[in-house]
Fold this sequence. Notes:
single chain, 320 residues, alpha/beta, Rossmann fold, 6-stranded mixed beta sheet, 4-stranded parallel beta sheet, 13 helices, 10 strands, 15% strand, globular
Amino acid sequence: MNHLNTVPSLAHIQEAHQRISPFIVRTPVLHSDALNKMFHTHLFFKCENFQHTGSFKLRGASNAIFSLDEESAQKGVATHSSGNHAQAVAYAARKHSIPAYIVMPTNAPKIKIEGVKEYGGQIFFCEPTLEARERTAEEVIGKTGATFIHPFNDYRIIAGQASCAKELIEEVKLLDVIVCPVGGGGLLSGTALSTHYLLPHSQVIAAEPALADDAFRSFQSGKVEPVLSTVTIADGLRTSLGEKTLDIMQKYVSSVILAKEESIVKAMRLIWERLKIIIEPSCAVPLAAIMDDTSGFFQGKQIGIILTGGNVDLDKLPWQ
């Protein structure tokens, strides 16, 4: 599966999961009686903050990199990312003993820059715009011949990310809803596919910051809408969707719900306090969106929540 040119099938997802299993952690699923009582729900948290590199991104990056042919792999891989995908590509490339060229914006979180360096990635800094990222990545690829590993708009990435919900479903078995944060949509579309194949009567709902509601608008309009604002605290969700992720999302995702900034901070703190684990702000968006829902839809339901990562700058906590 060097180039996956179609929406991943269940067989593709199973193959991806098998391929990456030696390199990833099968992360635990936690629950909290206190949170269940607070929200009148049964919440199951899939803890990708315990994944190598501190986020789910390693799943997709490992699948894309380990499915390259030998000739392509030896020239290395390149990507642009503000953080978690960058670390995942650097880590997976090191495991495959090939070079990783990482384009990062100058405003990327310090902890994520340090992570890329630690995993042996060669960093090229650029201005914090998508245009600058893409232009710099093209220059790097032109010089090195490296294969570009897109952060989300790649079926190999989506198939790898789908392994996360696959594990959650295998462990919990009966879920009414899975709530997944959405940035570029790689995890969301993978989650939607795994749920469609393995738990077809369940719904997948995307959660997004109200201050970065491009996925919400894209879902309504049917085309990729630009990010109009990047001021949300959820730095992992400041990216617009890709064509591939939006297409899957429109077929298999029930709705996109929004979370207020103050709810994101509150949900993040609640998870730290009740589950005793470190998560980054983007992770808290699903619980925040449930918190902000006034329809009563979630009450009494078995709900899976994917906690996407734990790479947070401890010197810049939102409640300090």
